[in-house]
Amino acid sequence: MTRVFSGVKPTGHLTLGNYLGAMRRWASVDQYEADALFCVVDLHALTVDHDPARVRRLSRQAATLLLASGLDPELCTLFVQSHVDEHARLSYVLECVATDGEMRRMIQYKEKAAREQRRGGSVRLSLLTYPVLMAADILAYGADEVPVGDDQVQHVELTRDLAVRFNQRYGHTFVVPRATRPGVASRVMNLQDPTSKMGKSDDVGPGIVYLLDEPDVVRKKVMRAVTDSGREVVYDREARPGLANLLEILAACAGGSPEELSGAYASYGALKKDTAEAVVEVLRPVQERHKELCADPGFVEGVLRDGAERARGMARPTVDAAYRAIGLLPAVPAADAGGAVLRV
Ligand code: TYM
């Protein structure tokens, strides 16, 4: 059976981009068709300036929203990254296979490092090594597929390179994974700046639809989306990025293709109205289930506890094998150590 792994980083409130680009497919397809693991990757949230209490809160919220979006703990494994030591254990070993040059070529590193520097802050070393930790997340579980939005594809490509390099140097240890992307909305753009991604860590609130936004807030954000000064509704990502973004969101929420839908609208206003309603309808069941789950925090905790236990059992053998393959001396279990002393 295909093994799938993917994750979400608790650096902000989850957005419509996270949902359409990744989470929705995890719940509607991946958990049924594959042996699937989904992870709140909290260690990754420490790579930029952070508030400890906020990271804890957002981690719990992300796990609750993943369940609210339809993940079923009977069908998949849901857990928090820091509850499973194997991620950090493997990350160090992979750092010994990765190069400084390939880390510095990562687009997200370049963008985020530049942003930190513009704000006058310093760039954490973990921001540079972040893609290696992400590779460890994936390779520890022998995942065949990694369902992600467009922005994570470069990191999955790096993961493939590291797996191949490790296998060639030290013997076959890792499955070489591949990224999978949704057909539409693999890159949902900011409604106020349709040339940049709708990202949860960004500060520009009005252009970002959060999964927990009230219906009226969603309507307002979509109705105020920046479009261009033309009048005709056409789908052209290059020339009309704002319009294309709305058509893609509508297609992802209500069905159809952006090209087809463009022919059905005579005005921007009508397109915005239908897009807003389609988003509200997609978010409604997620928000309702989220409310129910918040009333039962013990359930969410139990899911994460069981998930971490299952995940540990899956990751341990692969990470142990990687340690042996790269030349680390296996630790002798305590019981055997006693025996060894007696034998001397
Ligand atoms: P993160 O938390 O930024 O995003 C989680 C998932 O949502 C997708 N996504 C989007 N898709 C379409 N349009 C958008 N505007 C949009 N914004 C986010 C992302 O592509 C992602 O699939 N590094 C990862 C987390 C991670 C991970 C992993 C993922 C850590 N380890 C291992 C897969 C496998 C990240 O920051 O995702």
TrEMBL record:
Its EC number is 6.1.1.2. GO terms for molecular function: ATP binding; tryptophan-tRNA ligase activity. Keywords: Aminoacyl-tRNA synthetase, ATP-binding, Cytoplasm, Ligase, Nucleotide-binding, Protein biosynthesis. Pfam families: tRNA-synt_1b. Its main location: cytoplasm. It comes from the Bacteria. It is an enzyme of class 6 (ligase). A motif ('HIGH' region) lies at residues 10-18. GO terms for cellular component: cytosol. It is found in: Cytoplasm. A motif ('KMSKS' region) lies at residues 197-201. ATP binds at K9, P10, T11, G17, N18, G149, D150, D151, V188, K197, M198, G199, K200, S201. It catalyses: tRNA(Trp) + L-tryptophan + ATP = L-tryptophyl-tRNA(Trp) + AMP + diphosphate + H(+). InterPro entries: aa-tRNA-synth_I_CS, aa-tRNA-synth_Ic, Rossmann-like_a/b/a_fold, Trp-tRNA-ligase, Trp-tRNA-ligase_bac-type, Trp-tRNA_synthetase. L-tryptophan binds at D137. GO terms for biological process: tryptophanyl-tRNA aminoacylation. Gene3D superfamilies: HUPs, Tyrosyl-Transfer RNA Synthetase. Homodimer. Catalyzes the attachment of tryptophan to tRNA(Trp). Belongs to the class-I aminoacyl-tRNA synthetase family. This is Tryptophan--tRNA ligase.
